[in-house]
Q: What sequence folds into this?
């Protein structure tokens, strides 16, 4: 027994992992994946200029990174035409969500999210003793009106809302979100997770000033920019909220080369456009593969496709296992009715070929 | 005004920065440093094999890192001959300290440290509402007996103790620490920060099992291994304590290339030995420079030297400013009587030459 006396909150919590990582699954399996299509990473990779910048920076990895991520933060501010004090850079959206929850949620505080939405947010809320109130999806979309009603009912401090959504890939127009925000209760903050925004159609971005006091927007270099392993996310919000991160964040937590890589990636808009094109093509191909196998691909504004297997969750989970046995790594939503779907990331053509080969076998296996 | 409703604790805290980073100082100055000797980084750099491994890994930076840092954790366990569940890898010692404090410290809980010890630990304690009780240094050493007495008096949950110490560079024998631990109060955990252990003489490591329930040891790749910008630290402790980190940590927070670099660095013992030799030589050279200028270098078991300027804190702070104006970046302890010292990192020969050139001028300037 350790001598550490945990806080009552900590003592009440399980040691947990919001996601089992792909490497863990590979070790358990004893073999690498043929198709890594479960983590919504960008197999198309980051801008070659970002990789080059990172490799160059590696020579100076003995230096701590800039604790204010000054250059990256200012480049983001320039891109968005906002003051730099509306921007904070952190260790991925996960790290920023953790900080945000710590800033606002104490034991017993109410937080609203959707049933089946991002588990890592829920993990952070639990870690601060918050009480989660969950609203079901509505036609495979997050139900913003429902979330806001729930927020009013439970006096929520935070309302988590992803647009586009993970794990369903659905989206709302930015204009409809801006309009709905009129109903955001006075003491609630909308936590707008825009990890997949770069894959969404025009009009998905919320047309409100970045310093609108009602929202914090979370974005990342992990998806469209292909830098998931670098751990670079950022938040855009009112300067009062951004400044508060300095109360809890790990000030020297940002990897030095990662900051430099993200800056180079941000500047290579041509590469971003290429990736967006490849993701679109891969989305279509995933859709074809699904349909060829009698499954129903849902519309997606992300770098993955939720595929409706037209059966129950037990069936979809069995299908996922059968695919994993063939080296195809996918994930799927947890709660019904979303769990009738499997979630397929937009991988490389060869990976999608592997999926196309494995899926019929897996379906035969689970329908036997 | 943001809509975010901060917790009462957060509302009571200042937005702060435990350290102003070197890049910030350079920007304020409008010029780069001639000698970067203030952050105890390793200008000798990491193992070339670590840089090579990192650069190779950069090509796969689109993948999330292994959330369990499996390979690195197991290599560390092998090195120390302990089970892997005694080891956790995190985003530098800073990140691990933040997690540890969250696990144990709630509002009003008592924590003990030395007056003038690591500010980032204090920052994390404040961030969780803990009450810091500070014990003065004793002859420029942390006063372990005094810390343990204070811990008993105030019912401390954590006792922070660095060995070797930062900012003074002093150290205790591991055997004396092990003996003193007999007086550690029942409900207290010793937080043993060993960031500089690789620079210390034989016998500095505490000769107790790594799973001793009374200690958690924190080590890093930022100092001797030259990977400060990569953000890789680790903790060694009883499995019960290690497992608890999974309640609060950012599971996918580790940079993928950094994990791989740290593993390669760990395996290059030859490079480590070279760095240790260079640090020793640089320590001697810093000592010479100090003595040539009528200052008194204190004995050091780290990669820096605390130099007693033989005057008061005002003098030392003025000297630091005068050196900064010449492009020589140093730091110094904050409270008296430690603030009679300036702290000089073991830099490259050219940097120490720059220091040797700048110091007489700076001394003339401040004694004028």
A:
């Amino acid at each position: 027994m350790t001598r550490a006396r945990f806080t009552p909150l900590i003592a009440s919590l399980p040691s947990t992992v919001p996601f089992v990582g792909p490497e863990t699954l590979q070790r358990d399996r004893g073999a690498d994946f043929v198709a890594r299509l479960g983590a919504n990473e960008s197999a198309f990779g980051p801008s070659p200029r970002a990789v080059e910048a990172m490799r160059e920076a590696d020579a100076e990895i003995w230096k701590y990174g800039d604790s204010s991520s000054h250059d990256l933060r200012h480049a983001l501010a320039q891109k968005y035409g906002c003051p730099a004090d509306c921007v904070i850079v952190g260790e991925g959206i996960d790290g920023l969500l953790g900080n945000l929850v710590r800033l606002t949620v104490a034991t017993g505080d109410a937080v609203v999210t959707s049933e089946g939405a991002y588990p890592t947010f829920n993990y952070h809320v639990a870690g601060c003793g918050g009480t989660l109130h969950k609203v079901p999806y509505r036609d495979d979309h997050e139900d913003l009106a429902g979330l806001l009603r729930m927020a009013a009912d439970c006096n929520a401090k935070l309302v988590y809302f992803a647009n586009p959504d993970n794990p369903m890939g659905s989206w709302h127009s930015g204009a409809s979100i801006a309009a709905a925000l009129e109903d955001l209760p006075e003491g609630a903050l909308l936590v707008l997770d825009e990890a997949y925004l770069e894959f969404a159609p025009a009009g998905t971005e919320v047309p409100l000033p970045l310093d609108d006091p009602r929202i914090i927007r979370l974005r990342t270099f992990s998806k469209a920019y292909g830098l998931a392993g670098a751990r670079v996310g950022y938040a855009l919000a009112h300067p009062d909220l951004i400044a508060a991160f300095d109360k809890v964040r790990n000030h020297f937590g940002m990897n030095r080369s990662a900051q430099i890589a993200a800056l180079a990636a941000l500047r290579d808009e041509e590469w971003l456009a290429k990736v967006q094109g490849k993701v679109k093509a891969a989305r279509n191909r995933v859709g074809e593969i699904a349909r060829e196998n009698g499954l129903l691909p849902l519309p997606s504004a992300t770098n993955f496709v939720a595929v409706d297997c037209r059966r129950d969750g037990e069936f979809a989970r069995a299908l996922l296992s059968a695919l994993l046995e063939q080296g195809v790594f996918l994930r799927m939503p947890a709660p019904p009715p979303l769990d009738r779907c499997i979630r397929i990331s937009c991988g490389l053509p060869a990976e999608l070929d592997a999926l196309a080969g494995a899926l019929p076998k897996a379906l035969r296996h689970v329908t036997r």
User: Anything to note?
Assistant: Chain B has two domains: 19-45+270-367, 48-267.
